[in-house]
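Notes from the 1:1 (GR / supervisor)

We went over the backlog. Supervisor wanted to see one worked example end to end before approving the batch request, so GR pasted a single chain during the call. The sequence is below; no edits were made to it. Supervisor asked that the structure be written out right there so they could see what the output format looks like.
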Amino acid sequence: MPEPSKPVKQERILLVLRYLWENSDENHQVTIKDIESYLNENGCSGNRGTITADIEKLIAFGHDIVCVRSTQNRYFLADRGFETPEIKLLIDAVQSARFLTKKKSRELIEKLSGYLGPEHSSILNRQLYVNERIKALNESIYYSVDQIHTAIQNKKTVTFKYYSYLPNKEKEFKHNGQIYKLSPYALIWNDDCYYAIGYSVHHNGIAKFRVDRMSCMNITENTAIPIPDNFDVADYFTEVFSMFSCNFVSETRRGK
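Structure output shown during the call:
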């Protein structure tokens, strides 16, 4: 029984899109012959008629593929969802975020650079000095942030262990690895760090925790303690972090 043609056709149109995504932009236009060679290299056949029809279908589906008409038509993918300056801005934000580890920064930069077309390797090379910045060591912080957001949305408590770093960069868990219980109210970004704010059972009141120092986090089925009527996140932020800054400046001046 011969192989059905539909799956082959679907595979071909996806390969055409992938080739345009990875190899074309306004400054890198490709021909039907280029696409045909790519298809052959990937074990898929195509000719001028089928490839042109595939491109027309991709355009009809919403992909911004531009045809530059000439004796040999040339094509390029004009829109990847982000403008180049937007991607570079996001890359710079990832690069400078201290709460991200070196490994995760590089992974995110590589993914973001994929939206820049065939020249993205030069963007990656531009970011090599990311390793020179002080970066976080906690590889799971991005998952912790997501869990805290989920707990806030669903009004649930979270449990976790809390630690600091010794001079040799080894973790030292607070209170011998005690499990903290928190009803999270908000996430605050301050001085390149995420802080979870909420009602802490251990502190018997409102407390803040650096998210990059939280480990073994879990969302429980327990309903969070409601936010007190007189509690305002903005006021708490101003009071706590302004006080911290003043104390730090004062201690610095005294040589502490």
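Supervisor's comment: Helices lie at 5-23, 32-41, 48-60, 84-96, 102-113, 120-126, 141-154, 233-253.
Batch request approved.
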